[in-house]
Amino acid sequence: MKYGYFDHDNREYVIDRIDVPVSWTNYIGVKDMCGVFNHTAGGYLFYKSPEFHRITRFRPNGVPMDRPGHYVYVRDDETGEYWTLSWQPVGIDLKKAKYVCRHGLSYIKYQCEYSGIWGEQTLFIPLDDPVEVWNVALRNDSGRRRKLSVFAYVEFSFHHIQIDNQNFQMSLYASGSSYKDGIIELDLFYEENGFQFFTANNAADDAGGFDCLRDTFIGPYRTETNPIAVERGACTGSFELGGNHCGALRQCVELESGEEARLVFLLGEGNRQAGKKMREKYCANGFSAVDLSFKALGNFWKEKLDKLQISTPSAGMNAMINTWTLYQAEINVIFSRFASFIEVGGRTGLGYRDTSQDAMMVQHSNPEKSRSRLVELLKGLTTEGYGLHLFSPEWFEKRTEPSFKSPTVVPLPPKSQRVHGINDACADDALWLIPSIVEYIRETGDFGFADEKYAYADTFDPDTGEGEKETVYDHMKRILDFSARETGPHGICKGLRADWNDCLNLGGGESAMVSFLHHWALVHFCALGRRLGRDVAAYEKMAANIRETCERELWNGSWYTRGFTSSGRAIGSPDCKEGRVFMESNTWAVLSGAVSHEHGRAAMDAVDQFLYTPYGLKLCDPAYSEPDDEVGFVTRVYKGLKENAAIFSHPNPWAWAAEAVLGRGEQAMKFFDALCPYNQNDKIETRKAEPYMYCQFIAGPDHSAFGRAHHPFMTGSAGWSYFAATRFMLGIRPDFDNLIVDPCIPASWPSFTVRRVWRGAIYNITVENPQGVSKGVKECRLNGQSVICNDKGAQIPVQSVGSENLVTVVINT
Ligand code: GLC
Fold first, then answer.
1. Which residue's alpha carbon is nearest to atom 10 within ligand 1?
2. Neighbour-count burial of 700, counting CB atoms closer than 10 A to its CB (0-12 exposed, 13-18 middle, 19+ buried)
């Protein structure tokens, strides 16, 4: 069963059957202001922080589902009948109305045909202004003159989400609303400059044109489905100091047959004055600024996506890589992970491991943001060499005091709360940062970054803005030394609070995943060190030692053991009754470069044999059925959900990459295809979630809802899918001085092409596969000249900025 389709030309996912079983979401905003909305305009808006600067309210996990939102009501003033341009909240009978939602890149269009009126509401945030634009169009297709009232409605939130949800004593009496000059102003009185505005192109000058009080607009014993003001056809001009506030603006529209009307509403950051300025800008000259900024947003995404475009025999891979997966990965980097319908904004800050990985995935399309994330993470590293698991980057900036200490200002926590000890450290966190830094240098050629100096978190003084500074290169050494120090009785790295798998705590035991990751980080670090002419002998020795230890302690004769509990019990080994095979240890054994090819193949065969399902690879097998605290919290998770043998998406691309390393293109593609959301577009009765987004996990075969996907959008699976497909399967990898082409594809692919922008030059790459192999670059021509090919692939030297280059690569036996 399907609910929509991919519109490739417009880069939109079009939901043409609107009664989707769950919310299908999308994000608007690419800088400071951001909104997350579903296919029926339910959702919320915030400025910078979803926790401390929420603009509109959301009743998460509620009934009715996912309300309120940013709604446009249309009322027929002759009959009194009304509907919304998004299907909900009015919820017109779908036999009588046609509703479509187009999820685009940082915009959403809600379209409706009802009662002879076509209407469209587009939501987006211009690149350069903190204002949400509602671009509303109406057309009278009814063949007769119509008199309509259009109401735009939002429910305001107290900025501080915890206070908004728990402390009405404050939220209800410290916010006030007013209407003047056609602008609703929300004033959060305890807060310095705590204002929002809501205005429209055609400001009302009578009380029927606005309401600022939610309960007046909606009316008692009613909901957003049937607000009294809409039913009546007029607002009442309500506003008050204190209370629950809304922005409700009415515009009256008369349309001749065939006539169109355009209305613009603006919801923004700042006071009435700011609103006036925005209205002057966006509502003048036939809304030309709205059109221009919408176009600029389109160009913003086009420019990013143009950095890497592919054409392969796989429609799913083309659609995901060319548009949706990069989009998802970018949204994760821009907004961190804490604004969705699952994480509704009660947390902010950066998760160390998640952000380190996310920042590695969009370096070609967003080098500035990737770099600033890397710097934030470097400042969140301790002198011990572990990263702060969850921290706010502002903690490590010089403190600036607000002139007025409102109770809503979040004080800087004391040092003991900012900088946690080793007991709260996760063993993998900072290791991810090293490859991320090295890949950033490979992508950009910014070699000087390695010698920039940043202070360590535990030495930083927010009052002076100073601390003990060392180079980025030294930060990396401290991370590697920490993991070398923190090993257990088998010589394998300790898992500490957890490794990548939050729920596999091993009671303080040892983690194969961390040792393999340590090796991977060392491979990256040593390559950089050698390129910079530094002495890396000690770290090469460290890597050799890991290889030897891992093969000795973790190879169990069939695959790679996942780890050891504190009492020495092996996890993820053939002797285990439950949790016998794990994805992390087997994929990372191969990816890390620490194990033999032969063992790597066997390990990945076990992954296929025990973990493969038609919806992707399970995290482990068999699922745990009884609590066992020596293993960890994973044993207290229901079978088939989350880390307990669900199809956890994030590690799936590790398996594609591992298969590519092993040269098994068919296997890589089989695993890619199983997880690919695009391939499940017509299986929504099972999948339920968005087919254009990777989800955190899909219920595994042990669960009654096998195949149901959960937690869309905010997941590291997007970045990793992008990285594994482009760098490993298609094999386009920047190195310090060369662009490497080393694909591993299904033997049945006759060819594919990639357009890649690297350091300002364009590479139009065609890979030919005349003999139907998977891997093995034998020949490469750059603008007609042959270039070096070795066992690592074709080595294409950096070309001059602005040049466009033709690359042909042949893979062969
Ligand atoms: C969640 C967390 C991530 C963790 C993963 C597996 O996605 O955000 O940090 O690695 O779960 O437990």
1. 500
2. buried
